[in-house]
Amino acid sequence: MESLLAESSGGGVRMATLDDGTEVVVKSGEASAVRAEAAGLRWLAEPAVVGVPEVLGETEGRMVSTRVPSGSPDAGAAERFGRGLAALHAAGAPAFGSPPPGGPVEAWIGGARMENVTGSADQDWPSWYAEHRVLPHARRALGGDDLAVVERACARFAAVAGPPEPPARLHGDLWTGNVLWSGGQGWVIDPAAHGGHRETDLAMLALFGAPQLETILAAYDEAAPLADGWRDRVDLHQLWPLLVHAELFGGGYGRQALAVCARLGG
């Protein structure tokens, strides 16, 4: 881990080559963020159903993992990823909001703080999602009348969330930039892993247009059929990442989030 050669810097991420020729990624940053990512990668790798970089070492604020070269998916790779993602979600989590084993409560999604907090024993997903995902980011990104719109939409979540689902093992930040394609399969990187609703990962894939998206979704639905009306719930599950983007970048993401709230009845 200490013998890193041919290093090239890129912010908190460096590519390096070990003495034995292994190409690795070296990430450094805030200690809880690195710890959360390492724990998330290990948790997602545990079922061995999708590609996940191997964590080779971790110290305070620094992690070394295997490097995954990135290409483009064909239909076969997309189908395998869809089935694998269904199996990953089915591996489950102890509760909504549960962190990966060894992961901190104070976690991150991108550059935004995210708490992995489980609800009470009888808390359902809609109320947990409102309390621990949507509202914390809305309060940091919005104010006044705009925040009130989000709060009214949260009151509608139970009516539009569809049938109850068990906690799924989520990647948590599954936008297209966090899916790499190599060796005929999809690989996931940079997780914000936690126990959540499986439709959230799928909605994030759609948010910025993952390649071969319909092939992925069809394979997923064949392997683990989605509840009726799931396409109508994409907005609901995209509200959280839109508010995260509004918190980090402002601008149009806040307007998109408010438009979603209007469609949900906020």
Automatic annotation (TrEMBL):
<dbReference type="InterPro" id="IPR011009">
    <property type="entry name" value="Kinase-like_dom_sf"/>
</dbReference>
<keyword id="KW-0418">Kinase</keyword>
<dbReference type="Pfam" id="PF03881">
    <property type="entry name" value="Fructosamin_kin"/>
</dbReference>
<dbReference type="InterPro" id="IPR016477">
    <property type="entry name" value="Fructo-/Ketosamine-3-kinase"/>
</dbReference>
<keyword id="KW-0808">Transferase</keyword>
<protein>
    <submittedName>
        <fullName>Fructosamine kinase family protein</fullName>
    </submittedName>
</protein>
<dbReference type="GO" id="GO:0016301">
    <property type="term" value="F:kinase activity"/>
</dbReference>
<comment type="similarity">
    <text>Belongs to the fructosamine kinase family.</text>
</comment>
